Amino acid sequence: MSSLARLEREVVACRRCPRLVAWREEVARTKRAAYASESYWGRPLPGFGDPAARVLVLGLAPAAHGGNRTGRIFTGDRSGDWLFAALYRAGFANQPTSTSRDDGLMLRDCYVTAAVRCAPPANRPTPGERDSCLPYLIRELALLTHVRVIVCLGSFAWDAAMRAVDAPRPRRRFGHGEVAWVERYALLGCYHPSQQNTFTGKLTEAMLDDVFTRARGLAA
Predict the structure, then answer these.
(1) 163, HSE (Cβ side, Cα atoms, 13 Å)
(2) How far apart are CA 82 and CA 205, in angstroms?
(3) Is residue 1 predicted with pLDDT exceeding 90?
C-alpha cells in the first residue's frame, strides 16, 4: 500500500472533532429530499488526484450534500461544478463534471484536497477544527513531492496553507490573485467558487481560468 493510500485510510477513519462527527453523520442519516434514495458517505474526505501533481488545489471543507454525500471533495455540488469545469478548460482534468466517485474523472498534474475534511455546520469550521486537520495537509504535502503551487480557495484555505508550510510572520494577507512564496511553494489566492461568489459575479469563469493559467505558469 502506498503512503498516500495509508494516509487516505487514516483520514476516512478520523473522529477527532466531535462537533463535525455529529453533524456529518446527522446529515447522512436525514439526507436532502432530492437525494433520499442515495447512500451518503458521511465520513471525512481524503484528497485525490495525480500523485505527481505540481499544482494542489486547497478548498475549505466538504459540502454537506456534496462531498459528504458522494465521498469525494467538491463532487456533486455547485462549487465543484465551477471548479472542475475550470480544471478541464485548463487541461488539469479529463472531463468538466464531477458527480460521483466512479464517474471517470481523472486529474493530470493536479491534486485536490481541503483544509477541513468533514462537512461543518453552516460551512463554517472553527479554528480548532482547522488545526486538528492540519497534520493531514502537512503529510499530504510531504508525500506530494512535486507540488510547487497551492491554489487556495478562499481566506480560510489560505490561512491553513500558510500554517501547513510554516510561513514566517508577518504573513501576506489573502487576496484574489495574490501570490506568496514560501520556500518551494507559491501560494496563489483565489475566491472560493461558492454560490455567494459566483451568483454575485465576485468570481467569474474568466477570473477562475486566469488563476489556473497562472498556476500552470508558476509550476513550470
Answers:
(1) 18
(2) 8
(3) no
Range of the domain at 42: 3-219
Nearest to 198 by CA among 97, 80, 118, 111: 80
pLDDT in tens, 69-102: 999 999 999 999 999 999 999 999 999 999 999 9
Distances (CA, A) of 163 to 5, 57, 116, 125, 127: 24, 16, 13, 16, 12
Domain CATH number, residue 35: 3.40.470.10
Single-letter amino acid code for the residue at 168: P
Asked whether the CA dihedral 50, 51, 52, 56 is positive or negative, the reply is positive
CA separation, residue 40 to residues 101, 108, 112, 136 (Å): 12, 27, 20, 23
pTM: 0.97
What one-character DSSP code corresponds to residue 126? Answer: -
**What nine digits make up the cell of 112?**
485536490
Q: How many domains does the chain have?
A: 1
What is the number of other CB atoms lying within 10 angstroms of the CB of residue 97? 14
